[in-house]
């Protein structure tokens, strides 16, 4: 490999219940991004069952890699770098992806790079933009995380706030379960909310006005539970709209305030919940009012995918000269700073 544009990275993501494989050329040229969601396998349990997730990554990953190479019209010897998520996430699923990545890198005699899943989400934005580089504030909002990160340059991250209990997506999924919506509930609650009245029920906005940038969503969950017990005939669209009104207000207030406090001109919003249309609308409106540029990756790069993992790995390899030894271990609780 002589030129950086020629670097061909195979990205592997298996931190939760999506098996995903991507091929990236250079730093940003996404050739293919295949995502196999196991959501249907977990739906009957109302959430991800780690053992089932691990077993299905084992089953699916080799075929997805083959399909990705075929779709990219390349073969194994064409690859120059293997990038795989090594944390945070579920330990079994992480082990499957990382071990597979090590085997490939060793067999092909090419470097391996372990990627932090949260940094991966930030690179979903990098992949889809050309002129929106740090410094900026990043809100990572997904099923596992609600974290505000100050990004002055890629590779150096400062967490300024995070959830003290449930992640926003986790709370939305649990509330969805109470409402009888299948797992994951985010997209369906988003759709239902468009037909509902966000002012129908005034659910609490925990920590929305507290000092600091931490979040809390478990109180909202309990409040919805009691409300539904008392009012079993409540219109489901109104419940969805009122729940999202609370979640969106908390996320918008805190992230705009953090962006201002840390003197940033841009806020990027990444992770599965960044796909939410109501959040997108509210943040765009707030950004316009406060003079802050707001950006979201395209929907397909918001939820878990290997493109963002390949993106972060290729960036670190090309610009920071990084790669990992084969004794790299998965780390379920890996932090970004
Ligand atoms: O980033 P992601 O795929 O996985 C984690 O890293 O956690 O995020 C999944 C989360 C789920 O909680 C799902 O319900 C939520 O993102 N989600 C949404 C929407 N689409 C996915 N939440 C709200 N509105 C959506 N449109
Ligand atoms: Zn994620």
Account of the 3D structure:
The protein is of the alpha/beta class and 337 residues long. It has two domains: 3-122 and 302-320, ATPase, nucleotide binding domain (Nucleotidyltransferase, domain 5, 2-Layer Sandwich), CATH 3.30.420; 133-300, 2-Layer Sandwich (Nucleotidyltransferase, domain 5), CATH 3.30.420.40. The protein has helices at 39-43, 50-72, 91-108, 117-127, 168-178, 186-193, 218-230, 236-261, 277-290, 307-320, and strands spanning 8-13, 18-25, 29-37, 81-87, 112-116, 136-141, 146-153, 156-162, 266-270, 293-295. A five-stranded mixed sheet has the order 3-2-1-4-5, sandwiched between helices. Strands 8-7-6-9-10 form a five-stranded mixed sheet, sandwiched between helices. β4, α3 and β5 form a beta-alpha-beta unit. α4 crosses α10 and α5 runs parallel beside α7 (218-230). The longest helix has 26 residues, at 236-261. The mean pLDDT is 96. Zinc ion binds next to α4.
Under the CATH scheme, which class of the largest domain? Answer: Alpha Beta
Gyration radius, in Å: 20 Å
- Please give the order of strands in the largest beta sheet: 3-2-1-4-5
H/E series: EEEHHEHEHEEEHHHHEHEH
Number of strands: 10
The count of domains is 2
Q: Helix/strand/pairing class, anyone?
A: alpha/beta
Bound molecule kinds, no repeats: 5'-O-[(R)-(carboxyoxy)(hydroxy)phosphoryl]adenosine, zinc ion
Strand content: 15-25%
Low-confidence sequence ranges: none
Between the first and last Cα atoms, what is the distance in angstroms? 31 Å
